[in-house]
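Letters spell out the chain; the tokens describe the backbone. To illustrate:

===
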Amino acid sequence: MGLTIGRRTLFAVICAVAVASIYAAQPVLAQIGSDLGVPDADLGWIVAAGQLGYLAGLAVLVPLGDMIDRRKLMAGYLLLTAVGAVLAATATRTWVLLVGMVAAGLFAVVVQTTVAYAAALSTPEERGRNLGAVTSGVVIGILGARVAAGALAAVWGWRSVYVALAVLLVALACLVLTTLPPDARADHATYPQVLTSLGGLFRERLFLSRGLIAFFLFASFGALWSGLALPLAAAPWHLSTAQIGLFGLAGLVGALGAARAGRWADAGFASSVSGGALVLLAASWLAIGQASWSLWLVVIGVVVLDFAVQAVHVSNQHLLTMTHPHRTSSVIGGYMIFYSLGSALGATATTTVFAGAGWAGSSVLGAAFAACALVVWASSRRVATEPHLPLSDPQKASRP
């Protein structure tokens, strides 16, 4: 069964809106703090709450896609994410807001269920292209949320951001139920079996190598996007929040430009694409590090960095879903645990380093993360390029 253009577009939009529910708070933290009386030092917990919920969802919710109709799961997760958004929009106390953020993050793992379903609906010849198109929605959500949330909050306040997200999430849940085909299961694995299968992935060399690459890849990504506002808001630029948000558009250009990486993966070049993109990732920091005197170099560096990140991300998922076509939900969920941990490391480390060594130090940190990813790729290249037989579920694999 192939994936039609309409369904591919719907999947990309689902990814964009769901992931935006986690990242939309970043540009409006100051408004939230002022409205709810949250001290500046505690504002980071608002974003962290969503990330912690997301990390939990990757481990306990995404594997359900390997045993339950993914169409129903997607609709349910979208509606529950909308509940979290409504709690955030109506919160008058900080703890209610945090509960809403945790709930939104927990069920925003609909992104991984969506990516896994897209992989399952794709023919082997078009899987990379479809993954590239669908995961482009994730990048649009991460980077576009900064621009859209800032604009909405400037006109109607920060609560309007979560009202808009809730409306979009409910509408998408209805579209999922009415336009996507049923996702029948031939085998009926139990939840403990699925979790055991997920744990088994962490003993496989290919999975571990791709996961470690993702860990360092998104640590580098997090070092940029969690720290870039600091030098841009300082001398000599003194850019406003809205102006800083526009740098997200440069990131979108780069990430969307990498959509073709899926086609290269379909042609058998997934590992080579990863290596080349990681070299670009490390080189991009040479330009990004010049923020003290050239904004144009920063823009160029941002475009290159986001192109590289998306190219590697698509190639990684292509290799893993081709190797585990019957466990796409588990393998995507497990892989994204590395992504989540790497993003958290990059976000926390870049602000710490900036405080002591400025943006030059943060740039060295981002480049070091990229270099680590490149080392992992080089040391595991043979594993990624060896022919892999598709693996079925553990129960089938154990049968004679």
Observations:
- Confidence is low (pLDDT under 50) at residues 385-400.
